[in-house]
Amino acid sequence: MRYLRRERGDVEANLDISPLIDMVFILLIFFMVSTTFVKDMNLELTRPSAQSASRASSKAIRVFIDRAGTAYLDDVPVKPWMIQSRVRELLKSGASGDVLVVTDVQVPAEKLIAVVDQCRLAGADHVGVATRAEAG
Fold first, then answer.
1. What distance in Å separates the CA atoms of residue 44 and residue 33, rounded to the nearest whole number?
2. For 8, which DSSP code?
3. For the domain bounded by 61-129, which CATH number is listed?
4. Helix, strand or coil, per DSSP, at residue 105
């Protein structure tokens, strides 16, 4: 009986990458599920700019003011006097204590101040105004 000898260069190395692919998909699913997505309203806004701008929390309550001066909270138009009670309800339901006012450059200052004042009276810890550099 004849035995065939293998040469040293004939050794075949197999590498199974299916566990690696499984782990990549598990990590992908984990990061997709754990990521918080912030959906901004589809309003045509030109945000003001500021040199001291910093990133806003993605968990902040967002109040939008369009060019016409209409305020929106949870995609629903609200009157200025209703903002305080609506923000207070959101804060009591466990939302973050931060409020971010997203406004257009052409909104009058008195309208912006009225909205910020209502948010502070509702008990918000921090009230900020979104600028171009804000990407939260």
1. 30
2. G
3. 3.30.420.270
4. coil
Assigned token pair, 1: 């009986």
Could you tell me the two tokens for 13? 């190395």
3-state secondary structure of 80: helix
Is this model's pTM higher than 0.85 or not?
no
**Per residue in 49-65, is it b (16+ CB within 10 Å) or e — as a string?**
eeeebeebeeebbbbbb
Q: Where are the alpha helices (DSSP H) in the chain?
A: 18-34, 80-92, 109-121
Maximum separation of any 2 CA atoms in the chain, in Å: 101
- Residue 6 burial (10 A CB sphere; 0-12, 13-18, 19+): exposed
Separation of alpha carbons 64 and 62, rounded Å: 6
Q: Convert the pLDDT of each residue in 75-118 to its tens digit.
A: 888 888 888 888 888 888 877 778 888 887 888 888 888 888 88
Q: H or E element: which one contains 61?
A: strand 61-65
